[in-house]
Amino acid sequence: MHAMHDELDLFKMGNLRKKMRSTWIYMGIASVALAGLPFFAGYWSKDAIIETAFNEHTYILWVILVITAGMTAFYSFRQVFLTFHGEDRHTPLGFHPHDMHKYVLIAMAPLAVLAFITGYFMDAYKGFIYQFNDSVQYEMSEHTHHLAPYLAALVVGIALSAITYAYFKYARTGKNAWKRDEKVESGVFYKLLINQYYVPKFYEAFITKPYAMISALLWTKVDLKIVDATVDNIAKFMYGSGDKTRSMQTGNLSNYLNWMAVGTVLLLLVAAISAMIA
Fold first, then answer.
1. What is the pTM of this model?
2. Which of 164, 179, 194 is the last residue of a domain?
3. Do 212 and 85 belong to one domain?
């Protein structure tokens, strides 16, 4: 995004690995982990979730999770292949990308390392959590434990198949290069997906815009004319009264004595009225 001058359209990129090799490597590591391939971080967490669904006999949920794992692998590597492989689509559009700066690479290095090694601390983390309470402890059944390698192999196989499909569809060049299909893109299902089920447009039309209109109305009619006006009038009153009463400070002793007398009379009046009321 930064290298492409804030451009987010993957279809305007392609073959960037030659100009952004470090970014390509980092993105590849992240995608492998996200796809849940052995023995990266995503493999351990995703494998545990899918095994738990199988262990609890929620087989419909297990099937959905397995399919979702394949879809995750597909879209992760679809992004990698569209961005860093295939035909160069960015140069004709006038983009001149560059790789990440060294300080960015250094800052992101711990994430890349953790993507490699996090899973190897899973048993230690489990032991740390289990010591708090018996209610958080969970173990697979003996049956699931024996099937676990086959379940993991199934998920990995589906993920690899999805990655292979993404490669042949998006990573090739020449006559086999990916090309936009206007027929598919004009379809209802594609438009539904590309517009994110129209949720952002609904949110903007029925939440963001009305909220902005109400906010503008409250700002102009309430905040400026009531709240700000009240504060401004108090300030004007204090400023005006201070400006008028400072004429008392003449430096003349006789004037001060006169004001003291006036103040004394006022205090006596207040005391007399209070005594009469009491």
1. 0.69
2. 179
3. no
Q: Indicate whether 172 and 218 sit together in one domain.
A: no
Query: 3-state DSSP call for residue 205?
Result: helix
DSSP type of residue 204: I
- In this structure, the answer to whether residues 153 and 271 fall within a common structural domain is no
Residue type, position 110, single letter: P
100, 125, 104, 102: which is closest to 41 by C-alpha?
Answer: 125
Pair of tokens at residue 145: 């434990």
Q: For residue 265, give its domain range.
A: 202-277
CA angle 178, 86, 39 (to 5 degrees): 110
Task: Report if residue 194 sits inside a domain.
Answer: no
d(CA 199, CA 187): 18
Please, are residues 177 and 86 in contact by the beta-carbon 8 Å criterion? yes
Tokens representing residue 231 in the block: 């504060």
Local confidence pLDDT in tens for the 278 residues of the chain: 666 777 778 888 888 888 889 989 999 999 999 999 988 988 888 888 999 999 999 999 999 999 999 999 999 999 999 999 999 888 887 787 878 888 888 999 999 999 988 888 888 888 888 888 777 778 888 888 899 999 999 999 999 999 999 999 999 988 888 887 888 888 899 899 888 899 999 999 999 999 999 999 999 988 988 989 999 999 999 988 888 777 777 777 777 788 888 889 999 999 989 888 87
Peptide linkage before 74 cis (omega within 30 of 0) = no
| Residue 87 dihedral angles phi and psi, to the nearest 5° | -75, 150
In this structure, are 128 and 41 located in the same domain?
yes
